[in-house]
Design goal:
This protein is an alpha/beta fold. It contains ten helices and 14 strands. It folds into two domains: 184 residues, Periplasmic binding protein-like II (D-Maltodextrin-Binding Protein, domain 2), CATH 3.40.190; 109 residues, Periplasmic binding protein-like II (D-Maltodextrin-Binding Protein, domain 2), CATH 3.40.190.10.
Length: 308
């Protein structure tokens, strides 16, 4: 049985983080370019006529862009009169929470924070909490190589210091970009969802003719420390929140068949819940695609597909 003190602490933290999106509530425009998709006179969608129980669906999401998109979906649902109510918890200010533990334990109904390689690693580390799965892919936080010192990967000097992810779930993304640029060679040919590709690490480097110094660094610090490095790999959402211009990217990863698309996850018994199904339909619809394209300047790109 779960430790009552731990559960109580988790519940208090979760309660402090929650923000309810009430039906018809005004939404604060996000601090990014665009915003036309947030107009209050939204047209109805293809989901009009579908109604679901109005019991709030508890969603844990990264503050931006995922949280922004959930708020936009609430507006769409309101315009359609669907009855769908979303109770949103965002990750900002609540770093002590493990969002997948919250999902597995039933504290939240839907998780919208990560990609399948991360979830696979999380489940491997928590085998007793393997009770949830993906419902739909929604977006890709475009991963790129940035530099304030050089304008092209070709300009990187011999021995260049490059900040790479210090976590395995994103490390392969950086190494395959370097391989595609011809700067290193790995013992795996291309990035895909295969176990061999997802497990690529620095030990997989078989050639490094430019003697690159690859420095494992925390996600946020890779953006903060950009001026001090020759180049740095930065996630799209982190670049966005740190005011980094996308035109400064030396290169960005391919988006076709990219295994790092962010999904919504639900516990197995809720995957076919009509509220979760309707949420997935909104998230994979053309309105959300337009919203992402209009507001995130290429840092975040739509990657929409129902997987269940």
């Amino acid at each position: 049985m779960e430790n009552k003190r731990a559960k109580s602490r988790r519940t208090v933290l979760l309660g402090a983080a929650i923000g309810v999106i009430a039906v018809g509530a005004a939404l604060v425009a996000p601090a990014f370019v665009g915003g036309n998709a947030w107009a209050s006179d939204l047209a109805t969608t293809a989901n009009k006529g579908t109604t679901v129980p109005d019991t709030p669906l508890k969603i844990y999401a990264t503050a931006s862009p995922q949280g922004d998109i959930v708020r936009f979906v609430q507006k769409l649902a309101d315009a359609d009169g669907s009855g769908l109510k979303l109770k949103l918890t965002t990750s900002g200010g609540s770093g002590a929470l493990d969002s997948y533990e919250l999902l597995a334990s039933g504290d939240t109904d839907v998780n919208f924070t990560g990609h399948q390689p991360y979830v696979n690693a999380w489940k491997a580390a928590h085998p007793k909490l393997n009770n949830f799965d993906g419902k739909a892919t929604v977006l890709l936080n475009a991963f790129g190589l940035y530099s304030e010192k050089y304008k092209s990967p070709k300009d990187l000097p011999d021995g260049a210091k490059i900040l790479i992810p210090n976590e395995q779930t994103n490390l392969p993304r950086s190494l395959f970009i370097l391989q595609d640029l011809g700067l290193i060679k790995l013992n795996v040919e291309k990035l895909d969802s295969s176990p061999a590709a997802i497990s690529v690490s620095e030990k997989s480097i078989v050639e490094n003719p430019r003697h690159l110094q690859l420095i494992p660094t925390d996600t946020v610090l890779r953006a903060k420390a950009l001026p001090d490095a020759d180049a740095s790999f930065i996630n799209g959402d982190v670049a966005l929140s740190n005011g980094i211009d996308p035109s400064r990217a030396l290169v960005r990863e391919h988006t076709t068949d990219n295994p790092y698309a962010n999904l919504i996850y639900a516990r197995n018994e809720m995957l076919d819940d009509p509220r979760v199904t309707l949420l997935a339909k909104y998230l994979t619809g053309p309105e959300v695609k337009q919203f992402i394209d209009a507001n995130y300047r290429g840092f975040v790109v739509p990657d929409q597909k129902l997987v269940r």
